[in-house]
Amino acid sequence: MINNRTSIILILLAVVFVGLYSSVFVVNERQQAVVVRFGQIQDVKTEPGLYFKLPFAFMDADRVQYVEDQALRFDLDNIRVQVSGGKFYEVDAFVVYKIADPRRFRETVSGDRDSAEARLRTRLDASLRRVYGLRGFEAALSDERASMMREVRADLQADAETLGLRIEDVRIRRTDLTQEVSQQTFDRMKAERLAEAELIRARGNEAGQRRRAIADRQVVEIVADAQRESEILRGEGEAARTKTFADAFARDPKFFEFYRSMTAYTESIGSSDTTLVLSPHSEFFRYFNDSEGNPPAATTTQPATGN
């Protein structure tokens, strides 16, 4: 009898424990909870804490669906967009969002993130094509890019609100030219650089020729000035030499004659291979015959007398 009573008490305690355990749920700081009772949303818990619900969810009573209460992100890669000039970009973008209204999120997509992100991807793709299509080739690479992202964010926000979401940010991770446009752009840039190089080279050649012409003219002027100066100095030297000789001749004509004769001897017979055919009594050798340089006395020839 006692054993039966103990068993009943244990069973009752177990039922109470299971009932309490199944009626308690915890929401942490990164979660929100939607309480669903018989398929209808009964309550939404957005603050962390310990909460109660009807037990025994297997009987289709209260069930708890958790959704994130933090920034979420999804990416959209390799989107081919056309700008107003007809060229194409390949764009990678990402979106950061939060579940702002768990009740609406549950009602529209049954709390399924994949379904919500699929709808946002479709809208993001269309918005990127529209925003890029309204602008030229250089816009996505300029300061206008920030305003383009604000437009895309505004487009997404309207759809996000219908899903119970809030768009926190939209960013472009990559904007590249497509392969064919990249090659065309490279060829155009190469041609521009080559043309610029030729222009710079032509300007350099022109400047070089101008500098060489100036240098050549300066060389001619310097050489001419040097030659003129040398001729002036040579003339002055010759004048000084002539004056010196004239002064010497005026002071001592005999010494001047002697000096000139010695100079002539040095220049004419100073070399060992010089040969002179002259009479020893010629005027040239007068200082050999007489230290005063007097000419030799005339030789008289006596006539022969016959016996």
UniProtKB/TrEMBL annotation:
It comes from Ensifer oleiphilus. It holds the Pfam family Band_7. One of its GO terms (cellular component) is membrane. This is Protein HflC. Keywords: Hydrolase, Membrane, Protease, Transmembrane, Transmembrane helix. Belongs to the band 7/mec-2 family. HflC subfamily. One of its GO terms (biological process) is proteolysis. The lineage of its organism: Bacteria, Pseudomonadati, Pseudomonadota, Alphaproteobacteria, Hyphomicrobiales. One of its GO terms (molecular function) is peptidase activity.
